[in-house]
Design goal:
By secondary structure, this protein is an alpha/beta fold. The chain is built from ten helices and six strands, in the order αβαβαβααβαββαααα. Strand 2, helix 3 and strand 3 form a beta-alpha-beta unit.
Length: 291
Amino acid sequence: MNAMPSRKHDYEAAKRAKRLRHQVGQAIADYNMIEDGDRVMVCLSGGKDSYTLLDILLKLQAKAPVRFELTAVHLDQKQPGYDPETLPRYLRGIGVPFEILEQDTYSVVKRVIPEGRTMCSLCSRLRRGSLYTYAAEHGYSKIALGHHRDDIVETMFLNLFHQATLKAMPPKLRSDDGRNVLIRPLAYCAEDDIAAYAEQQGFPIMPCNLCGSQENLQRKAIKAMLAEWERKHPGRTETIFRALGNVAPSQLADRNLFDFAGLGTRPAAARADARAWLAGAEPASEDDRPS
């Protein structure tokens, strides 16, 4: 009597695994993330996303049209309750080259961030700094990060609501210091699929104990908003994500992306500046002035 549910479960799991591999392969191809001869450093946090990233890259590597190396790199941040054997045991078991870096960022974060405040931002910056420096010093041509589609959409709304900017996490970018190229092969993958895949594969998940797995409250609110939209309108998150790759600069208002000032102008006409246009206007109140 249990055969039918089991077969259905296995079928759905196989379909999900195939979908994730296809999405990762498509993202790599679309953004030319991995080239022949690349040495790719996979940042392995011990969470579901980075485990899934490493697992799928390994599966794709076997039949990839280019030759590339993979090395898993993890940062031991000296958090309480950290088990130093979990990751090495897993990585040795699957035969992946790896490095475990050590830096006591835990003490720094606890010293700098007041009790009760969100620690994620500083913790992430310190972790990125250590990993990016290591990659640059050891000649890795690409750094693979485990951010997925939902992370990208959530970041867009965080920037929109709190920073007044239209930007998210690009699938591929060069780091601010210019030393590293970062890739996000999970960019097309839904978080629900990744969570189910990680459970299916039995990855040894390592929880973050720095702040009791405290999540950035603003991101948590965005996540709840998107979940509600998705419940009422299935597929909306995917539609929003696709919009990030279908931008029409002339239909927005960024003067750096599109020459609105030069649109429809007559060659001989002189252009008056804002001071001239406002000479006879009433001074704007603080509320009326553009930020």
